[in-house]
Amino acid sequence: MFMFEYPEDLRYLDSHEYVRLEGEIATIGITAFAVDQLGDVVFLELPEIGDALTKGERFGSIESVKAVEDLNSPVTGTVIERNDTMIDSPEEVAEDPYGEGWLLKVRVNDPSEIEDALTANEYSAQVEGV
Description:
By secondary structure, this protein is an alpha+beta fold. The protein is about 15% helix and about 35% strand. The strands form 2 sheets. The chain has a 6-stranded antiparallel β-sheet with strand order 1-2-3-9-8-5. Strand 2 and strand 3 (about 25-30) form a beta hairpin. The protein is globular. The glycine cleavage system is composed of four proteins: P, T, L and H.
């Protein structure tokens, strides 16, 4: 079984989104495991700058040749930046999901919201079954 990378500085959702919190700015993306499960990504729907996100609620979708999956927000806040490169070339998400393949930057209302998200070890154990 292939082991994926799960950076320690991120927190993870059961639905395979990750969040990197730097001060009050959260960078949101999807995990390498999710990208692998989806296969070839062909379409990405993301909110507009200025849109409000609510923790646990859908903010967009990612579509592959196999499936369409909702993207769920790990935080409540306002979209301040979105990665339009990923909208134009969604297949690039797979190349560097934790780096250049990020999806959104959000100014969070309450940084402590991420405390109930999974750590890298917890997420790894859940998806890899180890």
